[in-house]
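Input/output pair, single chain:
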Amino acid sequence: MDTILAAAAAAFKMGLPDAYPQPAARGWLVWRVLPSARRRLCRISRADPSGKRDRRVSERNNMTINRRELLTAFALGSVAGGIRAAESYPSKPITIVYPYAGGSASDTLTRQFGEILSKALGQPVVVESKPGAGGSMALEQVTRAPADGHTLVLTASGTMSVNPHIYNLKYKPVEDLAPIAILVDIPFIAVSNLSFPAKNLKEFIAVAKAQPGTLSFGNAGSGTQAHLTQVMFLKAAGITANIVPYKGGAPMTTDLLGGHVDAAFDNAAAQVANVQAGRVRPLFVTTQTRSPTLPDVPTADEAGLPGFVASGWFGLAVPKGTPLPIIEKLNRIVVAAMKDSATRRKLLEAGWMPVGSSPEEAAARARADLVRFGAIVSQLGLKPN
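Output:
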């Protein structure tokens, strides 16, 4: 009951909804849920058995039911429904829509949290890959899914806050999706194939300047934050390159290892294994300090590009309108996982920086990034596709 009353109190601050229930339904709600209103109606009826005064009062001020009482009725009904939904949730298998091609580090991250959710909720969790348009196709699919908590999507700083500025989307990610949590922060890394002549960032810049626009430079998808950060890097370094967007990190890495693309800009977690095995040559990471997983890789600042720092994030979200108790239930599972030492160690070893935010913090960060990246896209002169 305390939870319901708290939600009702929050509803009072939001104002009266534009759409009222029909009078009969409204009267039933107030009669059943609000004893004080019921008592007042009874008093009016006893004071004037003829009912004439009752009718006049009803016409004048809607049966004397005040704003606060009506909002309480709405809030009680809404919150009670959400709590009932959370108690029976989940009632069937859950799907996490993954917005890129399978086989990459973020795919592994998604499946890791799928297993965590499945264990906690007692239902299978299926990861469904839907690449395309920098991840925007997957998010659009989820915005149209039932808002019952059974369809989730892996979100990212790129899909939530960059794509709206470079794609003509039919939806608004920060408005049409409800965040569950930010899972991890993402350091980025620049790597080259072993046959590329440059051994470090300064040599990389020298090669690019000697052959303007010919260096092939891959990323995991047009519109991803890695893509935007890649463009920012080229501008900061004063060089040009032939940017090659892929539908995910896995096909990009395949071409990088095969020598079909000179270099790539990727999230660090995706290249940890390749760097450690000596299959690619790391040039720099974009974080302010070195990655604990790749301590021998210099920052951009150390490598010769002072002040260049950038990072992104991955999170989980559900369709707008999903009951808040369901979102809170999922968030509690994520936060608990981040407090588990084994989970944190696994994430750090993979190159991720564990976060585990609240839904409110995730929403605030996505909105702030939307503004920040909008300014960057404008400065870089990128146009919507």
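The beta strands are 94-98, 125-129, 151-156, 177-192, 216-219, 242-245, 263-267, 281-285, 311-319, 353-354. The radius of gyration is 27 Å.
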